[in-house]
Design brief:
The structure holds two protein chains of two kinds.
Chain A (H helix, E strand, L loop, with lengths): L3 E4 L2 E4 L5 E7 L5 E7 L5 E9 L2 E4 L7 E2 L9 E3 L8 E8 L8 E2 L3 E5 L1
Chain B lengths: L3 E4 L2 E5 L4 E7 L6 E7 L6 E7 L4 E4 L2 E6 L4 E6 L8 E11 L2 E6 L3 E6 L1
Parallel strand pairs in B: 2-11
Antiparallel strand pairs in B: 1-3, 3-8, 4-5, 4-9, 6-7, 7-8, 9-10, 9-11
Classes of the chains: A mainly beta, B mainly beta.
């Protein structure tokens, strides 16, 4: 079982609040990713990182930002949450040495009222 | 860029029957094809994968086949059990020198009816 963690698991928050979703992995993986998952199941890549101080935007435009100051930590921040940000957010990591397999965390279910 | 189509979007089978999920991809450079299973309230987990130099791979009740010429790959689950009920995602990936691009399919919700 992969060692990748996300907190909180569930978050209900009001419009305009600043939030940070935490993601940590203990596998020493260089690559990390954030996905937004629709209620209709589809996974959308919103951010990725290939290592410390490396961050890139994904295929789906997102108002969130990310940082990668430490290898094991890849937090996602929303400066001002809106109802349209309500979704499931999944963090993942992968390692060149292990092939291209992505290991996913359990996800954070965000609801913005 | 890569485009991965996955069918069907929902699938119901009787316990003990087989289930087949199919994916097609567009980029011939893709060389790695993993399948993920997502149970309710959890993140997707890898269940089987195949690389472009192999045509078929099997692990107990699950198998994956790859047809590079036709650019399609399939997941086969035999003797289905209720615990196989989940959402399944295919993906196509290519990468070199540390760069990796993964494209996921849109998911298949499998229901195994006891």
């Amino acid at each position: 079982e992969a060692d990748i963690y996300q907190t909180p698991r569930y978050l209900v928050i009001g419009t305009g609040k600043k939030i940070t979703l935490e993601c940590s992995q203990t596998m020493g993986h260089d690559k990390m990713y954030w996905y937004q998952q629709d209620p209709g199941m589809e996974l959308h890549l919103i951010h990725y990182s290939y290592g410390v101080n490396s961050t890139e935007k994904g295929d789906l435009s997102s108002e969130s930002t990310v940082s990668r100051i430490r290898t094991e930590h890849f937090p996602l921040t929303l400066e001002s949450a809106r109802p349209s940000h309500t979704s499931q957010y999944l963090c993942a990591s992968s390692d060149d040495r292990g092939g291209d397999t992505q290991y996913f965390g359990p996800g954070t279910r965000l609801t913005v009222l | 860029g890569e485009n991965v189509e996955q069918h069907p979007s929902t699938l119901s089978v009787q316990e003990g029957d087989s289930a087949v999920i199919k994916c097609t991809y567009s980029d011939s450079a893709s060389n790695y094809f993993p399948w993920y299973k997502q149970e309710l309230g959890k993140g997707p987990q890898l269940i089987i994968d195949i690389r472009s130099n192999v045509g078929e791979k099997k692990d107990q009740r699950i198998a994956v086949t790859l047809n590079k010429t036709a650019k399609h790959f399939s997941l086969h689950i035999t003797e289905t059990q209720p615990e196989d009920s989940a959402v399944y995602f295919c993906a196509a990936s290519w990468g070199s020198g540390g760069y990796q691009k993964v494209t996921f399919g849109t998911g298949t919700k499998l229901q195994v009816i006891p």
